[in-house]
Design brief:
Rossmann fold, 2 domains, five-stranded parallel sheet, binds nicotinamide-adenine-dinucleotide, eight-stranded mixed sheet, 444 residues
Length: 444
């Protein structure tokens, strides 16, 4: 008699008896593991990083959005364990892959982490499992890479095991939208896979939206991030133009967003950082080339955003010159080095590019960021400076590259000579009297 795995899997998931394995315990995997564990599932987190696994066991979180208290609470309920042993996959009913998808040296997709994770799944797969890929990648990855690899075991998708793609949409440090209340897209290789994957995620996520295929689910994520990279580039270009017109970009955006339809505010900055926005659309460009298609918008947006750190330097150069100072002989403090406020993550951070350009020009550059005591990256080796009045006064200019909350911006404005605010944070601080600061505080 043919075994109906869908029925037994559904029954296990419905009763929360299903064992869930999460491969990759980073910004995406760890919160996802906790979301399922909180709902009563037994979750096993599998990671190649022994140190991360050890830390979690001790209740120490390395992810900004996960507190030690929250982690310890879950560990106490014995719903979550971590391991580096991939043989545990065999004991799982559902396996979700959340490994990194960076760019290679020539801006080509580096899917080696996905391949490694899938090989480990293949070596431990058994009948009746649902496998879901969450890592952001180009359309076709699940069907072209995962499916043949897993079927090389002789098992058949949609019959012996189920395979789907569900893009992660996590927004680190977002206080409102977390893993549980951000709607989730699901696309299976087969209809049965979509059905069972939706059933699984429905247990932990508020809203799950099925689409027609894994390719469609992969494309949804890339549309979302392409939309962001293009609009960020557009507003960065508008900011450089506003500067030429002596207009305040933030004033223009704030007024434009009063329109109740047809406009969505995006804000300028020193570039576009993080693991997603500057990287994911390039996955799409790469795949488009296979079809002889040139993604003009993505290419132009990347170019505009990548030029922003250089623009910041040129802008500062001009401001210093107007104050009879030379950039090369100046002492510059870069305030905030994370790619985004309140996130302890340096990936693709434009602040790093700004520091690199300044160092290359022989400028005396220092940095302050409450989240990083040291900066050791891409040839940069700096120790955080103190955030004191005397240090601020000793600097010719400060570039606010990241607008972390909780920093005393009033103190900063009161003790610095020139400030180039690339994030528009100072205009939000009521205590900083614009009149007093006039001639010292500059927008991008
Ligand atoms: N961070 C975000 O804001 C975000 C948002 C949406 C989507 N994503 C996507 O989610 C995926 C994961 O991103 P992240 O930010 O969580 O990455 P991360 O670097 O924070 O975490 C990845 C984890 O995977 C582990 N790992 C690497 N190779 C492994 C392997 N072969 N087997 C097991 N574990 C392995 C690493 O040790 C690390 O702990 C990426 O594709 C990313 O583009 C990230």
């Amino acid at each position: 008699m043919k075994k109906d795995y869908i029925k037994s899997l559904k029954s296990k998931i419905g009763k929360k008896n299903a064992a869930l394995g999460i491969i990759g315990l980073g910004y995406v995997g760890l919160p996802l593991a906790l979301a399922f564990a909180k709902k009563g599932f037994r979750v096993t987190g599998i990671d190649v990083d022994k140190d991360r696994v050890r830390k979690i066991k001790r209740g120490i979180s390395y992810i900004t959005d996960v507190s030690n208290d929250e982690l310890k609470k879950i560990l106490k309920r014995e719903r979550f364990e971590t391991t580096t042993n991939f043989k545990m996959i065999r004991k799982m009913d559902a396996v979700i892959i959340c490994v990194p998808t960076p760019m290679g040296k020539n801006k080509e997709p580096d899917i080696s982490y996905i391949r490694e994770a899938v090989t480990n799944v293949k070596n431990n797969i058994r009948k009746g499992q649902i496998i879901v890929l969450e890592s952001t990648t180009y359309p076709g990855t699940t069907r072209e890479i995962l499916l043949p690899e897993l079927e090389s075991t002789g098992l058949k998708e949609g019959k012996d095991f189920y395979l789907a793609f569900s893009p992660e949409r996590i927004d680190p440090a977002n206080k409102i939208y977390k893993t549980e209340n951000t709607p989730k897209i699901i696309g299976g290789i087969s209809r049965k896979s979509t059905q069972i994957a939706k059933f699984l995620y429905d247990r932990a996520i508020k809203e799950v939206i099925p689409v027609s295929s894994a390719d469609a689910a992969e494309m949804v994520k890339l549309l979302e991030n392409t939309f962001r990279i293009v609009n960020i580039a557009l507003v960065n270009e508008i900011a450089t133009l506003c500067n030429k017109f002596s207009l305040d970009t933030w004033e223009i955006i704030d007024a434009a967003k009063s329109k109740p339809y047809g406009f969505m505010p995006f804000y300028p900055g020193p570039g576009c950082g993080g693991h997603c926005i500057p990287v994911d659309p390039l996955y799409l460009s790469w795949k488009a080339k296979e079809h002889g298609f040139d993604t003009k918008f993505i290419n132009l947006a990347s170019q505009v955003n990548e030029s922003m750190p250089q623009y910041v330097i040129e802008r500062l150069d001009g401001i210093l010159a107007a104050h009879n100072k030379t950039l090369n002989k100046s002492k510059i403090l870069v305030l905030g080095v994370a790619y985004k406020k309140n996130v302890k993550d340096l990936r693709e951070s434009p602040a790093i590019d700004i520091i690199r350009i300044l160092e290359r020009r022989g400028v005396g550059v220092s940095f302050y960021d409450p989240l990083f005591p040291f900066l050791k990256i891409n040839g940069i080796n700096l120790k955080r400076t103190p955030f004191t009045g005397s240090f601020l006064k000793s600097q010719d200019a400060v570039i606010i590259a990241t607008d972390h909350t909780g920093l005393d911006y009033k103190f900063l404005a009161g003790h610095s000579s020139i400030i180039l605010d690339t994030r528009g944070i100072l205009r939000k601080i009521p205590d900083i009297k614009r009149a007093k600061s006039k001639g010292r505080i500059f927008n991008l």
